[in-house]
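Hey,
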Amino acid sequence: MSSVSTSAFSAFGLEPFPVVQPGDDLAAAIVDVLTSTGSHLHDGDVLVVASKAVSIAEERYVDLTSVVPTPEAVALSGRTGKPAEVVQVILDESVSHFVAGDRGPIIARHRLGFELTSAGVDRDGADGAWLLPSDPDASARGLRDALCKATGVTVVVVIADSDGRADRRGATVISIGAAGIAPLRTTEHAGKRQEETFADMIAASAGIILGQRGRGVPVVVLRGIHFTPGDEGVASMLHQAPRS
């Protein structure tokens, strides 16, 4: 994979964006916002889409009232302050975990191979939670294909999720799915080569606009980024293979 440099790019959020509802056609919603705002996609645009919007559209909802916590979940709940039902969902979605700090967060190795705060489980009020898309790379490819067909231009899709780090407070944004773009790039300078998690850099850049809570902007368009095309997906750069 050769080095591809970007000296400058622009970014804008698609807003106002309607509240995504379970079962919505996310590609159609994006096209509707583009039309209503007089915006147009260009060949090579990178659309960064919040994973929660994808999860809602794909109906990845868990009713917490139906969850029965195990003793392990109850113990973790007592330590972290998270509801035992939420902790149980985190355990169900992960293959391993540890608690960073005295009271959390819970850092979990998701079944998809990601290491995420709370296994990517996003609480929805007192009685519900949203899971990650079941196959984020496939979701990205489907969304990319639908957008290309609807708009007639060639675009890239990256699905982004907020995530914390075990060594510090606060959250950042990482990629969990990608289509049309190689998720890794190799840069070279002064005889040194460095492999970079390019899809994460893109997700983090869009995260400045996406925000973490209450922004209501689930889609950001990045324009002017140079990249190597590819459909390997984010899964291709993970150390741990997905588990069923």
